[in-house]
Amino acid sequence: MDIQAGRYHDESIGSVVTLNLAEGEKMHVLHPQQIIAYRGPSSGRSDKLMNIKGMYRKHKLIQADFTGACRLIAALPPGFSLKMIELEGGDDLLYDFRNLFWYSSGIHMRTKLLSMKNMLFSRDVIKMKFDGVGQIGLLTQGLVCQEQLHPTEPIYVDASSVIAYPENANLELTVYGNHLASQHMNYHFKMTGQGTVLFHAGEHHRRLQQDMNDDGIIKRFLREVIPFGGVFIK
C-alpha cells in the first residue's frame, strides 16, 4: 500500500491524500464521503451498512471497502491531517471511532464497552479496538503527539485532545496547578499505566489564534482573572 499526502500552501483550503492499493490489497474506509476521485474497476468498491453496537442504537454509517489494484484520492478539511499507525499484534489502544479514516484488511475492528467510570470521563459509551497486523489511518485536527505512560508518575492530557489510550490505563478526570490555573483550563485526563497515549493539537491552535485576534489586553486580563470572565466579558 502506497500513501502520499500533499498539502496546498494555503491551509485554509485543506489538503488531499492519495492512496494506491496493489493487486489484491483491501482497505476499509469509514469516511467514504471524503473520497473525491477513484481510478480502478467499478467493481473495486463495495459499500455496506455498519452496525457497531447499533452505533449507540441510533445511527447507521456507510463503510466503503476497496479492493486493488486501484487509486483513491481523498480530501481532508482545513486543519485536518492524516496519521498512519502501524499495528503489529498485541496492541491494546482504545480509539475514538470519529477519528478513524480507514484500516487495512489485516486488521479486525471490534468494539469495547467502557466501564461506567470511563463513560462519565470520556462522555462516550464505546471505543474501538483493533486486532491483527496492518495499518490504520486517523483523521486528526492538527499534529498528533505520542507520550509514554508511567506506572506511578502521571501525565495530564487535555481531555478534548485525546485520540487513543491503553485499555488498562488508569484515568482520572481532573485539573492541576494552583487555584487560578485550575479555574482557567479544560478538564484533563490524569493518566498512569503502561503503553502510550495519542493526542492532537488542533483545538489549541484555534484557541491561540482567537487570543491573538482578541480585542485588547484589558479584556483578556479580566477574562482570565475573574471566574467565568469568558462568559460575562465579551
From TrEMBL:
Question: What Pfam families has UniProt attached to this entry?
Answer: AIM24
Name it: Uncharacterized protein (AIM24 family)
Which domain of life does the protein's organism represent? Bacteria
Native species: Paenibacillus brasilensis
